[in-house]
Amino acid sequence: MNVRHSSLFPILDFGFQIWSVPRPAISLTDVVASVPSLRQNCPMTRRSNRQFATITVIGRDKTGVVARITSFLFEQKANIEALEEQVTRGQFSMTLQASWAVSVGDRPTLLAGLENLGRRLGMEVKVRFTEPNRRQRLAILVTRETHCAEALLAALHSGRLQADPALMISNRKDLEPLARAARLPFTYVPWHDRVAAEKKTLQLLEEAQVDFVVLARFMKILSPNFVWRYKNKIINIHPSLLPSFPGPQAYRQAYEYGVKIIGVTAHFVSMHLDEGPILAQASAPIHAHAALSEIVKTGQGLEAAVLVKAVRLYLTKRLDVYWGRVKEM
Fold it and tell me: Catalytic: which of 13, 174, 274, 320?
């Protein structure tokens, strides 16, 4: 069983002032601190007195897995915050978010119990504990186009994106100079064997303690086995207003169909190609005599801007994916 620490749970900030007087200014924090009943029931206080973790369980489908995992967590006095499970071609996958009161949480007992349970079930069990005050770490996956990676690196460098880039991974070596210029570790992973390539990539992400992944025009399809391990934590940019024109040749298809408007879509990666929950979109008009090269140039500018926008939305908002739709909480 693998254990790591992450910053997966955004924490509500109640630090704003609810009224003002000349001296002193009184904030909601002061009010909560002064009233015992509020101190006990305020969401800010409850969350600060709890520890959180995300637990993933993956393996061949069998009966009773959900019941045995949740029963064990109940025995550990855990509260189930969210749970999602599914079976894809006989592969069982579950992502569960749980919390414990700090006073009763016993990490060694929890880890030993889940490890033992995973061994008995024949399942891979991973636990990611939450560190709310740590900035999220991202990995950038690329192939050979530079525009999205350059926009991400510029936004990270300027502070527009408040996150820490951990590494860049690619199935080609074309963008290694870009990563080195940004002093970002670069790893080339050949993708001739997808199973081996994904295994290596997951290992790199685990070692770098990556919280989420950005596909900056990464031109390989990730399997459900990979995607489920970062459920709603992989952001992709697609060169069309989904669901139209799936695949890598969207601008050529748009050109051949004579479209009058093109667009791009940033979305979470799901088990189905180019059908994940949408984070952000943008479009641009195309004049009647536009050449393919002009359409591509316009589209690439949109891609870079919308991908940065989607990552910023992911970092700054509390998002919930419900029935395939992304909502701000």
Answer: 274
The ranges assigned to domains in the chain are 2-130, 137-328
pLDDT digits (tens, 9 = 90+) for 84-141: 888 878 889 998 989 888 776 678 888 899 999 999 999 999 888 877 677 899 999 9
In angstroms, the CA 206 to CA 209 distance is 5
Give yes or no: 274 in active site.
yes
Give the domain 2-130 fold.
Answer: Alpha-Beta Plaits (3.30.70)
Question: Using an 8 Å Cβ cutoff, are 125 and 1 in contact?
Answer: yes
- pTM for the model stands at 0.77
First to last CA, the chain: 32
Homologous superfamily of domain range 137-328: Formyl transferase, N-terminal domain (3.40.50.170)
Q: What is the three-class DSSP state of 85?
A: strand
- Picking from 240, 265, 243, 242, the residue whose alpha carbon sits closest to that of residue 255 is 240
